[in-house]
Design goal:
3 strands; globular; alpha/beta; 1 helix; three-stranded parallel sheet; 11% helix
Length: 63
């Protein structure tokens, strides 16, 4: 069997304008992302992958 890994070309240029959304959900932990600016700008972050484990903020809900 051959397994093909998919590679996504996703660019997050900036965390600006995240405050226009009610919440942000993290469903995949990409180590390339800096989550601190994302948490800082978002109203609410729902982290399902523990990607923000090193960030303390009342805006983060870990589940």
């Amino acid at each position: 069997m051959t397994f093909v890994q998919r590679h996504w070309n996703i660019h997050v240029r900036t965390a600006e304008r995240l405050d226009q959304y009610d919440s942000l959900m993290i469903v995949t932990d990409y180590s390339e992302y800096g989550y601190l600016p994302i948490v800082r700008e978002a109203r609410l972050v729902v982290d399902t992958r523990n990607a923000t484990r090193r960030i303390n903020s009342p805006k983060i809900v870990r589940c």
